[in-house]
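ok so dumb question maybe but i'm new to this and my supervisor (M.) told me to 'just get the structure for 6-phospho-beta-glucosidase' and walked off. so i did the thing. is this what she meant?? sequence i used:
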Amino acid sequence: MEEKKLKQKTYKFPAGFLWGGATAANQMEGGFHEGNKGLNIADVLPGGKERLKILAEPGFNFEIDPDKYYPNHEGIDFYHRYKEDIALFAEIGFKAFRLSIAWTRIFPNGDELEPNEEGLAFYDRVFDELHKHGIEPVVTISHYEMPLNLVKEYGGWRDRKVVTFFERYVAAIFNRYKNKVKYWMTFNEINSGLAFPIMSLGFSIEKEEDKFKPTFQAFHHQFVASAMAVKLGHEIIPDSKIGCMIIFAPTYSFDSNPENVMHALQEERLFNNFCGDVQVRGEYPAFINRYFKEHNIELDIEEGDLALFKEHTVDYIGFSYYMSRTEKKEKTPEEIGEGNMIGGVKNPFLQASDWGWEIDPEGLRIALNKLYDRYQIPLFVVENGLGAYDKVEEDGSIHDDYRIDYLREHIKAMGEAVEDGVGLMGYTAWGCIDLVSASSGEYSKRYGFIYVDKHDDGSGTMDRSRKKSFFWYKDVISSNGERV
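this is what came out, is it supposed to look like this??
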């Protein structure tokens, strides 16, 4: 009897699903001194694996060292090549393109009274180009690019004055782009401040014992600023959708030992749920009270702050998913995973990327279910991808089947989550065009469907070319995820 061939499962994504790609201004634009742009945090982070050390250790002086290389200064020159890149995005079939506005293009020092017209005009041109190709812009307001002046003069988000400066910035871009941008997110990966506050909160921790109060006070100021942005967005752009954006890494217990289960629960609530609870539910979660008490944290909360949180919650949750996290209460240095930037131990059931990031597609389905169960508002996977070394063949082709395999399994996991009943509005693959890695400042850690000829030593032509994954993703989008 002839063996029946198993029919490959197909997935049905919602009509109008926002397929696309994601980037950040500081990692791709370049032109760091053009158009009256001011310096931001990313401009003083050197390239190379020492960047991780800088982010983790005290004593960073936020200065440019002439003996070091700063790849963010050039990025991939999107500042001059945006038309070429957007045409390539349109060729793939993007429905949406996630990008960020560089705060220092709009307010070079962060504390000016009036915005910089050259910066505003640049994004006018970018949004117009996107709309010309039928691509919906999804804009992150602040993506690891805080004005350096606000870091040096005010101590970053520790100072309440920064809330006022941010509100002025938000009002300027909402008023300027109210007819061009519908989808917004306030702070990129806001909970990353727990792991590396330099990029997210605008300061480094000088003493371990001093980290708790300034970190959570800075979070409070960001929550105020985010709620103000939601309020302004709904007033200035009535049909807008304003989201928050978090890193989500579902946390597993290493085993069934109740101590490890409880430890994993505590770690997950602090990292995955704390920021989301404030921005989605509009209040500090009950579990944080004990944490504050145990770490002697007393926040300076002004009258009206808590009411602002409650009245101006976000419309959707954007989140990045790269890996899960496995926790054990007592762990040895040998057990810690090489690439686990957010803690945890090695998971014996998972493989890892070239950079040690554990690969867990099922974890994305778990993440989507956990988030939707908790909040019951639309979800948007705004970052997911594989950083890998790509080889250019003699004929110029790039056979990145490993990237296709990675993305395919994660998209299948999203399809399963949709069948589970999760309300999912879109997917923008991270680094849809090769760019500078945020964590390591490397060009060689490539994510894109589009190859950029630029290398860690600064060499390269910046020429663009299509990888094999380019054509695969084009087919995924054209079939609305059925041909994955």
